[in-house]
Amino acid sequence: MSQPLIRVEGLSRRFDTGGGFLKAPRSMWAVRDVSLAVGQGEVLGVVGESGCGKSTLARLVLRLIEPTSGRVLLDGTDLTTLGAADLRAARRRMAMVFQDPYSSLDPRYTVADVVTEPFVVQRRPVPPGAVAEMLEAVGLPASAAAGYPHQLSGGQRQRVGIARALALHPEFLVLDEPTASLDVSIQAQIIELLSGLRDRLGLTYLFISHDLGLVRYFCDRIVVMYLGAVVEVLPDTTTAPRHPYTRALMDSSFSPDPAQRRTLAPLAGEIPSPFALPAGCAFADRCPRADARCLAERPPLDGDPAHPTACFHPL
Amino acid sequence: MTAAARPAPAVLRAFRRPVGALAGAWLLLVIAAAIFAPLLSPYEYDIQTLKEAYQPPSAAHWLGTDEFGRDLLTRLMYGARTSLSVSAIAILISVLCGMTLGAAAGYFGGRFDRLVTVVVDLTWSFPEILIALILVAIIGPGTTGVLVAISVAYLAQFTRLTRAQIMTLKGETFIEAARSLGAGSGHILFRHLLPNALAPVLVSAMLATGDAIILEATLGFFGLGAQPPTPSWGSMMSAGSALLFKSPGIILFPGLAVAITVIAINLFGDALIAALDIRSRMRPPQ
Fold first, then answer.
1. Which residues span the domain enclosing A51?
2. Residues of A in Cβ contact (< 8 Å) with B193
3. In this model, does residue B188 exceed pLDDT 90?
4. How far is A103 from chain B (nearest CA, A)?
5. Single pTM value for the model
6. Which of B69-78, B134-143, B174-183 has maximum average pLDDT?
7. Which terminal residue of chain B, N or C, has fewer Cβ atoms less than 10 Å from its own Cβ?
């Protein structure tokens, strides 16, 4: 791996729900001790079921929410300790594309207003011709600038969202399920667009998704999350999984080729409540390989440094 | 930057609906009559001509005269000045204060929010007329007293509405997107939250103006509003109530003026809501 642009060290976040009348306060760990690194120009995928903390992780990395503990280093600078002015300056180097293309654009802003907002926020003049240039880069006609988001389709809105993210020429983009709200045919276009932009602009992506098939197609390395913690890091998209959960995830995603489809062994049981974490491995009560040790002890993420797995009985 | 592409203002689009056009035309007529009263009427509103008292409608006096021989139409037009301006200015003050309080409470939350919510809920539990009567009793009768009373009476409504709007909008992804670009509270409040919260508050202000006209007339009827000889619709009705059977026009015409104007404001408000069409702009129909 090349020099890491983003380094996440021991990142955790606890959410407390305030107690009320006849209600005890509760707390849950949405993200538990996550460490990862994204190399310059790399696409790192993060997969997991909904509720596994991957969107929280995305927001922690960009410090849109504050971590309970841990650090996020952008090119060696710790983002979690920056003051307001320095953080604003650092935000020029990173941006985010959001899942919902409908609520991610202000309905009162024209497309031109949306893509120039980064300049307004950073108190910089808008370069002449920048609007048309940005729209062209994401495959929209310059005439779209005067329109409102409600006049655009979901795919077009997502292109506007990508143009906004790229406005200040960031190096690092967090893509939070950028295609999850789109039709399948549009998904492919957006992925093509993101892939092309990465090659052309040398971007680094943190790609959050629940779609393992998409992540395997698009990403260089894959981080698998379960209940707020990393269970496995796949060094590339072809390596066989070692963690039973990753295996179950892969089995549950359909292959387009019927000959390659395996018989499904659906996961039994439910994801445990993050309010009451099990003492041992979080996956133990759904895992076919679990034994007494898995229920009592939490497996650390170790083994091969290139392919770490948090499991006592890897495949 | 792209002003030409922005759609026509909602107020203009409200006029394109038949009901909206009719209601809007009446409101414009009343406002014009109030502004140009001295030019439109050959009579003075305060000169008494006792030998012409209690006249029925005629070519000289379209709506007849009152118990002091003053032209009723003239007094109605001057009365519109008091009633409309006091109501509108009071609601304007109420909206400005309510939006400031509600936006601050909804955006910053915490202890300030709890304080505002408790005070607002307390005043919300009293009828507006009671709050207004207490305040006029403290300040004293007259235009200023009524103005303050109406402003305070409707303050809770706008504070609550703005707070609720801001709290809903705060969770939208475009707010998070702005923060991810490095936007501070000022940008988020004034460039995103308040512009999006404005439309429903303005519609509510429009409808509240109708209620405020009734409240102003009520206070005037009790003799707490503008003092004679300055006419207001409420005080005119008060004077006419004693003469209901002798000369019904004295109470009937200001009563009709209040009723029709309030109905017109409500109908125009409805047309405005339809023209604003806030929801459908957020998401295309599924």
1. 4-14+29-245
2. none
3. yes
4. 5
5. 0.84
6. B174-183
7. C
A279 pLDDT band, cuts 50/70/90, is confident
On whether residue B8 sits in a domain, the answer given is no
Let me know if residue A46 belongs to a domain.
yes
Q: Are the beta carbons of A87 and B187 separated by less than 8 Å? A: no
- Is position B16 within any domain? no
Look at B177 and A108 and tell me if their CB atoms are within 8 Å.
no
Q: What is the CATH number of the domain that holds A52?
A: 3.40.50.300
Q: Does B59 touch chain A (CB under 8 A)?
A: no
**Residue A308 resides in a domain:** no
A·B CB contacts under 8 A = 83
* Residue A84 touches partner B, C-beta closer than 8 Å: yes
Position of tokens 């006209």? B213
With respect to residue B17, please indicate whether it lies within any of the assigned structural domains: no
Give the separation between CA A76 and CA A57, rounded to whole angstroms.
19
Name the B residues in 1-40 with CB < 8 Å from any A CB: 1-2, 4-6
The confidence score (pLDDT) of residue B2 equals 39
B181 touches chain A (CB under 8 A): yes
Q: State the CATH number of the domain containing residue B62.
A: 1.10.3720.10
Q: Is residue A60 part of a domain?
A: yes
Taking the Cβ of residue A70 and every Cβ of chain B, the question of whether any pair is shorter than 8 Å is answered with no
**Residue B210: domain span:** 29-41+58-278
B285 to chain A: closest CA residue: A150
Instruction: Check B183 against A121: CB less than 8 A apart.
Output: yes
Query: Is residue A293 included in any domain, yes or no?
Result: no
Number of domains in chain B: 1
Q: What is the DSSP string of A1-30?
A: ---EEEEEEEEEEEEEEPPBTTB--EEEEE
With cut-offs at 50, 70 and 90, classify the pLDDT of residue B96.
Answer: very high
Closest in B174, B181, B282 to A118, CB measured: B181
Give contacts of B 262-281 with A, CB under 8 A.
Answer: 280-281
Question: What confidence tens digit (pLDDT) does each residue in A81-125 have?
Answer: 999 999 999 999 999 999 999 899 999 999 999 999 999 999 999
